[in-house]
Amino acid sequence: MRAIVMREPGNADVLEMREVDRPAPADGELLVRVASSGVNRADLMQRMGRYPAPPGYPEHILGLEYAGTVEAIGQGVERFAVGHAVMGITGGGGYADFVVVPAVTAVSAPAALALLRVGALPEVFMTAFDAA
To answer: What is the DSSP string of 56-102?
Structure first.
């Protein structure tokens, strides 16, 4: 699959598109075909080496928010089906054709919006929702 990979911390010129292995969902996870991914301050800080990826998330593939369709489902996931439109926040990996996320962190994407636009919603929407 294609991914925007960070060679090393730095400015935007450290990002490049590469072919990388496609992830597979483990128990409780979703494999999402990414339609879009937002760019926010946390992504920029991570790219500059000032905001490390959480353990278990890719350190070299940025992208903390995503929108797309469920491609595959790990054991124990009952809330979503293949083809379901979802969005969410993740620890990294959103700047790729596919991202694996814990199913409990994904939410249904708003049906009224194209997935191309939805990728910029999760960070601001979920932060505002949690703050309310």
So the answer is: TS-SSB--SEEEEEEEEE-TT--S--TT-EEEEE-SS--SBSEEEEE
| Model confidence, pTM | 0.94
Compute how many other C-beta atoms are within 10 angstroms of the C-beta atom of residue 9.
Answer: 13
Which two three-digit tokens encode residue 44?
């920029």
Q: Please state, in angstroms and as integers, the Cα–Cα distance from residue 49 to each residue in 19, 39, 41, 115, 116, following that order.
A: 22, 16, 12, 29, 28
Query: Using one digit for the tens of pLDDT, what is the confidence trace for 110-120?
Result: 999 999 999 99
- Give the whole-angstrom CA distance, residue 49 versus residue 66: 21
Residue 23 near residue 56 (C-beta atoms within 8 A)? no
Taking residues 2-27, what's their average pLDDT? 97
